[in-house]
Amino acid sequence: MAAASSPSPAPAKKQKKWLRGNNKLIHRYLGEARAALAAAAQDTEDGDDAAAAALGLVSLALEMSPRAEAALELRARALLALRRYRDVADMLRDYIPSCGKSCSGDDATTSSSSCSSGSSGSGDLAAASRVELLSPDRDRSDAGAGAARFLCFDVSELKRRLVAGFSRNSNTEAQWRYLVLGQACFHLGLMEDAVVLLQTGRRLASAAFRRESVCWSEDSFSPSNTTSDVVSVTGNRRTSKSGSASVAPASEAESVSQLLAHVKLLLRRRAAAVAALDAGLPAEAVRHFNKVLDTRRSVLPHPFATACLVGRAAAFRSAGRPADAIADCNRALALDPAFIPALRARADLLESVGALPDCLRDLDHLKLLYDAALRDGKLPGPSWRPQGGIRFGEIAGAHRTLTARIQQLRGRVAAGEGCSVDYYALLGVARGCTRSELERAHLLLTLKLKPDRSVSFAERVELVDEHRDLESVRDQARMSALFLYRMLQKGYSFIMSAVLDEEAAARQRAKDAAALAASVPKQEDEAAKAEATAPVIPMPRTVVTAATTAATPMSMSPRLFCRDMAVVGSLLSRGGFDRAIPVKCEAMSC
Fold it and tell me: Which of 350, 395, 563, 579 is the most buried (most CB within 10 A)?
């Protein structure tokens, strides 16, 4: 019985031989995948094909060994080379810092429903472990404390984490994870997460280099090959219009340093713009946002560009430029039609200028997004996708407020307020403006917001959503710009007609004043002619004294007047009022 129960040595030898064969095959696949990635980094034309071939080889290796660390690293780098950043983020989701915070907050609001299934328990356990993701000893955390903290958890998830913690070195595994995920987070618009991850990856790489350099002699001292052998292939395969490559690919350490400096510069400029807007300096905020959006150094990821466009729209609105603000909201929605802050901002702007039907259209779209979020139990898009600071817990209250607002606006439209657009506010001119002021404002807005020119921003933006291509973004941006352009033309015609009516009324008033002014001299000439043709009646010469003058009332001689003013002046100078003054008095008819 003992001999029958003991395992035979033949199957054990076959199993060892099978494992050795699989290991050799896995090493061969991984070697070919590394060669394909190196070729993809150097070739700018057929780089995607080489990266796809490397991804296929890595997939074959992972089928034989799903937990092979080298295969996981090559798979992440192949996805990064293929610009599949969302797949990289989904693969390394537990390492995204903001994802841990947002997911933990959402799990806290829906804890009653999450504990009913085993999968939700694994999500809670993952959320608890994301608190210390950036520590080197992440996988060595106590699983018993996590199980005691939560009432429902997945045993398979806990087992997987324990086995992974005992079988792998967390310092060496986290190094490539942070570097690769940091680059993917930059392209996904998660700038703060990219800074944290890249800095952590550089710190771990420096620590590994110091540990390795201890046993090196002075003659064999050289930079670590762990961070410089693999060539970065993100952003270096961009070619110029002539078809030649722009720059030669740099090592991963250099590319990470350059990317980190660029991300910090963008974050500093955005922080300066937000601070200027909070301080009440909208012109300064617009200047800083322009530096971010009009950068020529490299392309911007479209989630980050969308958030900056909404921020610049808020600055334009504070500066009294609603047309420019609406144009920025149109660009943001062309990049991301489900971006909730952009829909809110454009609806508020359209309501402020009196375009109530268009405002209702945006509010209805926003209500559909709220309904979808309440139905799915999460915000639109993946959980790590930024939504401008909006959290799922705010959706229910915002939905009730939005429903009441839609009903109020529909009542105003039914009352006839839908056609009363404030074109003066839209064009940024004052009521009673002159024709020159109106033409200048209209010319500036037309040159900036021309439909053909409004789509040029898409060339400086990197699209990371596989469901939207550049042509669809351009088409939607052109349609939105055409709608705004027609509104501006209608407003220009409306205000110009009012200006022309005011100018015609001013010309009529001037004509009436000129006619009235011309009639007054004609009456004076007629009076002078009548005075000149009147007959002269001679009067006898008399001597007038002061006493007789005082005693004679004015009614007795109303037609007398003095013709010799020199005599009167000399009399007054001498003070002799009692002397007789010989004067000539004549009667005259008026």
Answer: 350
Output the pLDDT for position 127.
38
Q: Which residue has the tokens 């993946």?
A: 382
Distance CA 192, CA 185 (A): 9
**Mean pLDDT across the chain:** 74
Q: Any long-range contacts for 449-455 (C-beta under 8 Å, 24+ apart)?
A: 449/323, 449/324, 449/327, 449/481, 449/484, 449/485, 449/488, 450/481, 450/485, 451/478, 451/481, 451/482, 451/485, 452/478, 454/327, 454/330, 454/331, 454/478, 454/480, 454/481, 455/481
Angle subtended by helix axes 302-318 and 252-278, to nearest 10: 20
Pairing of the two strands 536-537 and 587-588: antiparallel
**What residues pair up with 169 in beta bridges, in sequence order?**
none
DSSP-derived secondary structure letter, 543: E
The C-alpha atoms of residue 96 and residue 85 are separated, in whole angstroms, by: 13
Reading the block at residue 2, the tokens are 């003992």
The region of weakest confidence among 81-90, 238-247, 339-348, 541-550 is: 238-247
Instruction: Specify burial of residue 316 (Cβ count, 10 A radius: 0-12, 13-18, 19+).
Output: buried
Q: Using alpha carbons, select from 277, 336, 261 the residue that is nearest to residue 304.
A: 336
* Ordered DSSP codes for 206-265: HHHHHHHHTT--STT----STTTSSBP-SSS--B-TTSSBSSPPPBHHHHHHHHHHHHHH
How far is the C-alpha of 125 from the C-alpha of 108, rounded, in Å?
A: 12
Position 420 scores a pLDDT of: 83
Helices and strands: H and E segment counts in the chain: 24, 6
Confirm if 134 and 94 have CB atoms less than 8 A apart: no
The span from the CA of 255 to the CA of 236, in Å, is 9
Q: Are 373 and 395 in contact (CB under 8 A)?
A: yes
Q: Two tokens at 93?
A: 């989701």
What is the mean pLDDT of the segment spanning 173-194? 86
Point out which residues pair with 84 in neighbouring strands.
none
What is the mean predicted confidence (pLDDT) over 62-88? 86
Residues 87 and 77: their CA atoms lie apart, in Å, by 11
Q: What is the pLDDT of residues 209-253, one digit of tens each?
A: 777 776 666 555 554 444 444 334 334 433 333 333 333 334 778
- For residue 317, the surrounding DSSP H or E stretch is helix 302-318
Q: Mean pLDDT: which of 60-74, 235-249, 490-504 is highest?
A: 490-504
pLDDT of residue 20: 59
d(CA 433, CA 503) in angstroms, rounded, equals 11
Ranges 137-151, 298-312, 365-379: which has the least confidence: 137-151
Question: Hey, is 306 helix, strand or coil?
Answer: helix
Q: Cβ neighbours of residue 460 under 8 Å, at least 6 residues apart?
A: 293, 294, 295, 299, 300, 305
Q: How many CB atoms lie within 10 A of CB 215?
A: 7
Query: Which residues have C-beta within 8 Å of that of residue 126, sequence separation ≥ 6?
Result: 94, 103, 157
Say if residue 551 is exposed, middle or buried (CB neighbours under 10 Å; 0-12, 13-18, 19+): exposed
